[in-house]
Write a structure and sequence with these properties.
It is built from 11 helices and 7 strands. By secondary structure, the protein is an alpha/beta fold. The chain has a 7-stranded mixed β-sheet with strand order 2-1-4-5-6-3-7. α2 packs across α3 (91-102) and α9 packs across α11 (261-274). The longest helix has 15 residues, at 59-73.
Length: 281
């Protein structure tokens, strides 16, 4: 084979190989989103979040996660956290709000959103974060796995870290509607049909055990739901008669068939719009 052919082959291989991720500029923002094909950290100029004080009805989870994050940002021992439970009760909002609140105390704390489908690339992401002087909260929203899903194995790179261990400057916060990250009926079905029932789903179920913090979120009562709306009104300066506000808010949740922080916010957005007030969605 002549030199020209070898040169063409080498050039073709260079084009096929993914370009190495340049050293990220972590000074560009306080939050980033991890993307693949090609690997890159996209800065987020404005994080969509609400103020920590507006998250009502989740006081224990709020205080626990805030304390854990403060210890992590200060360089002390801290745990990975799994926020699980009812939809719309502020799991994702709490993570973003805690990160925002911590910016006053620790500007070097960065938030990085990692999509579930990109979990196989997490090893490459950790290699970049490990070399940085900043501290990072990896945020994986709506985490769950099906019976044939192998992505959970990649998650262990963050939770256990393999032979290198989890980087000291990285902690993982994940949200899920499921405490064990997989549907209950799937767990029961695999246990009932497996040759060794006790081992059938042990690997996947035990994944949630690797989170040091389990923070449960449960449906709110009517008083909490109304308090959320009143808090939003006070924060954004929406003045409405208390009786009318209560009646409209109850009617709104009845049409939705649920009470939650998300339903409260959606009602307030509608209310603010009708009163000519802008809010950040």
């Amino acid at each position: 084979m002549d030199n020209n052919a070898l040169t063409r082959i080498a050039a073709a291989l260079d084009r096929m190989a993914p370009a190495a991720l340049p050293s990220p500029d972590f000074d560009a923002a306080t939050a980033f989103v991890w993307h693949v094909d090609p690997d890159r950290l996209e800065p987020v100029k404005r994080v969509a979040r609400v103020d920590l004080n507006l998250l009502l009805g989740i006081d224990r989870a709020r205080d626990t996660l805030l304390d854990n994050t403060r210890r992590f940002a200060s360089g002390y021992a801290s745990n990975n956290a799994l926020l699980w439970g009812s939809r719309g009760m502020g799991k994702s909002s709490l993570i973003k709000a805690v990160h925002g609140a911590m910016q006053v105390e620790h500007e070097g704390l960065k938030l990085i959103e990692l999509h579930r489908e990109d979990l196989p690339s997490v090893g490459r992401l950790l290699n970049h974060l490990r070399r940085s002087a900043y501290r990072f909260v990896l945020f994986c929203d709506d985490l769950s796995f099906s019976h044939d899903d192998e992505h959970y194995k990649s998650l262990k790179a963050v939770l256990d870290g393999g032979i290198e261990g989890r980087p000291d400057n990285v902690v993982l916060y994940a949200t899920s509607n499921r405490r064990h990250l997989m549907p209950r009926e799937m767990i029961e079905n695999e246990r009932s049909t497996a040759i060794s029932p006790s081992e059938a789903v042990e690997e996947k179920v035990s994944l949630s055990d690797r989170f040091g913090l389990w923070l449960g979120f449960h449906p709110c009562d009517q008083d909490t739901y109304l308090a959320m709306i009143s808090g939003y009104c006070a924060a954004y300066g929406v003045a409405v008669d208390a009786g009318a506000l209560r009646a409209e808010a109850i009617e709104w949740q009845a049409t939705r068939g649920a009470r939650s922080g998300r339903v409260a916010w959606q009602f307030f957005v509608d209310l603010a719009g009708r009163n000519g007030i802008k809010v950040n969605n």
